[in-house]
Write a structure and sequence with these properties.
The chain is α/β, with parallel strands linked by helices. 39% of the residues lie in helices and 18% in strands. It is built from ten helices and eleven strands. The strands form three sheets. It has a seven-stranded parallel beta sheet with strand order 1-4-5-6-7-8-11. A two-stranded antiparallel sheet has the order 2-3. Strand 4, helix 4 and strand 5 form a beta-alpha-beta unit. Helix 3 crosses helix 4 and helix 4 runs parallel beside helix 5. The two termini are 38 Å apart. The relative contact order is 0.11.
Length: 254
């Protein structure tokens, strides 16, 4: 399918806002995080547009007056080689953009973050979700805290802002693992941090299957209305603990 052309928007109105232009360069995700529905929506096989086609389309938007671009790929740096090539094309085309993307901590060569910075990437959503090795394994993450720390450092080294995320209260969560996560997030000196209490249950995920097994949701629940997995005994303590912890940190929001 072709990319949409700039003419679909009221350009005059859009250019006067701080809105980001959403741009997707690939679809599919093979990672199978326990709570994520992306594989059931887009499939597990990565399908990429040619980097030349992406850069050519992006050039049209920039020429029309857009400069802020959100690469909405589920994971921008899978694969790293494709992302490096894309960033180099953007740089070679001399496209002046202010970019942001969703970033996977498990695959972060220095060559990639340098190419991203040169291409105009200014912020990433660094999706690590926990600072506890045990919880990361339960979420089926394919990285540990050392990889997260390394990714965060490399991004900071090239001046790319880092927005971190913690999903607290999911399967296996304990007071100790929450405190581990909060302490770990603090140690990264992130530019911003989003904390979420409870994990939304989406259809056809491992989390949904676990919730059914535990009797938290019915097997035929379409989950169109939000349902959340939240370790019940942690509820009051977690809400109070996170509220107090975030109060003294201006980079945090819940």
């Amino acid at each position: 399918m072709p990319y949409p052309e700039p003419g679909i928007f009221n350009l005059e109105g859009q250019q006067q806002t701080s809105a980001y232009l959403p741009l997707q360069t690939r679809r599919g995700c093979p990672l199978d995080c326990s709570y994520c529905s992306m594989a059931s929506i887009e499939g597990r096989m990565l399908r990429r547009r040619s980097t030349a086609a992406v850069a050519a389309n992006l050039a049209k938007w920039v020429e029309s007056g857009f400069s802020q671009v959100f690469f909405v790929d589920n994971t921008f740096n899978l694969s790293a080689s494709y992302s490096i090539e894309l960033c180099r094309r953007i740089s070679e085309t001399n496209l002046k953009i202010n970019g942001r993307c969703i970033f996977y901590p498990g695959v972060v060569p220095r060559e990639l973050v340098e190419a991203m910075s040169k291409a105009g990437c200014r912020e990433v959503s660094l999706g690590f979700e926990s600072g506890s090795e045990n919880i990361l394994q339960r979420m089926n993450k394919h990285f540990g805290i050392d990889k997260i720390r390394e990714a965060s450092r490399l991004l900071a080294d090239v001046g790319i802002r880092r927005m971190g995320f913690l999903l607290l209260g999911g399967p296996g969560e304990t007071k100790a693992s929450v405190e581990e996560s909060l302490s770990f997030a603090d140690s990264l000196n992130l530019d911003s941090l989003k904390l979420t209490l409870g994990i939304r249950i989406y259809p056809q995920t491992n989390l949904a299957r676990q919730a059914v097994d535990e009797g938290l949701i019915a097997m035929d629940d379409p989950l169109l209305l939000p349902r959340f997995y939240f370790v019940e005994e942690l509820r009051p303590w977690l809400r109070e603990t996170v509220a107090q912890w975030a109060k003294g940190r201006s980079n945090c929001y819940c």
